[in-house]
């Protein structure tokens, strides 16, 4: 058990010695949890084998799942890659960095195999969050950082989540504001001729295609293969403790079906429902614990609340959860990707009226 330092830093006033202390820990092989605009990360210096091992140990992360390396300048990025940047990569950087887009490129020799899980590519992200940037700059080294949660649980979007999961397991946790976006970065493999979108995120496939043209997505068989392009694809993720069923279909059909499912469950079970503002009232009589993610017409807000709301079902100790689905448009693609994973593929499809007829 480690003695975890809690360092309070306000992102509008980062010039306090909390940042210097955190940077010192990173430079001396330690692990530090820090906020980013996507989710909180748990970071260590890419130059420290001990620090990198500390990340895997603290999270209980499988060692074949590589880490994203965070940088604070293009100059720093250039030390990590093997080849000069292509025109496509330059355009992506110009348009989306700093921001929630991770790029996979052929790695240079300075990136150790511990960081990349023996792959010859490295995932690189230039975060926008002032505390993340100040920490990397002060430490003066790229920081490898996955999300700050125990492996398999929901990513941490606020200090309290990271504290609940990692107090006693890391050297320091920066106490700051909630993450604005609330879903992890978009991951794009640009090491191939046609770039491949390995993980959807806040920056959408359409936005990327506007800048560089055609982008592929891995097939369903690729995602479930034993050796997928992105090792993280094969792992269960974001799962609440109780089994969660994701119900897909038009809104009224979903509501009807969820209430039917609840009615057929054992009366003694504590049933949770994850829904939206528009349908919240429809479950009040049937379920034990009902949580709205917000209006289904504001998918960014829904996405930003997803992980913190999933965690409340654990706190309430429900036995079973039914979850509504959302439109797969814009950020809705990333939102649904996380919901499918959180449900462990327990999907109930509700036929629309025309399909039934
Ligand atoms: P996390 O940091 O926990 O949000 O996860 C990072 C994601 O990026 C995981 O799904 C990893 O498998 C993926 N990733 C990291 N490095 C690489 C790489 N070199 N090639 C493909 N995927 C990667
Ligand atoms: Mg993660």
Brief write-up:
By secondary structure, the protein is an alpha/beta fold. It has helices spanning 17-27, 49-59, 74-78, 87-96, 113-116, 130-139, 159-166, 205-212, 220-223, 251-263, 299-315, 331-342, 353-356, and strands at residues 5-8, 32-34, 41-45, 68-70, 101-106, 121-125, 143-144, 172-175, 186-189, 196-199, 244-248, 271-275, 289-292, 320-324, 347-349. α1 (17-27) crosses α6 (130-139).
Span from first to last CA?
61 Å
Find the CATH topology of the largest domain.
Answer: DHBP synthase
Gyration radius from CA atoms, angstroms: 21 Å
Helix content: 25-40%
**The CATH homology group name of the largest domain:** DHBP synthase
Question: Helical stretch count?
Answer: 13
Number of domains: 2
| Coarse shape | globular
**What strand line-up does the widest sheet have?**
1-8-2-3-7-4-6-5-9-10
Q: Give a short account of the largest sheet.
A: 10 strands, mixed
Q: Name the assembly state.
A: single chain
Name the hetero compounds present.
Answer: adenosine monophosphate, magnesium ion
Blueprint of the fold:
Blueprint: E1 5-8, H1 17-27, E2 32-34, E3 41-45, H2 49-59, E4 68-70, H3 74-78, H4 87-96, E5 101-106, H5 113-116, E6 121-125, H6 130-139, E7 143-144, H7 159-166, E8 172-175, E9 186-189, E10 196-199, H8 205-212, H9 220-223, E11 244-248, H10 251-263, E12 271-275, E13 289-292, H11 299-315, E14 320-324, H12 331-342, E15 347-349, H13 353-356
Parallel strand pairs: 1-8, 2-8, 4-6, 5-9, 11-14, 11-15, 12-13, 12-14
Antiparallel strand pairs: 2-3, 3-7, 4-7, 5-6, 9-10
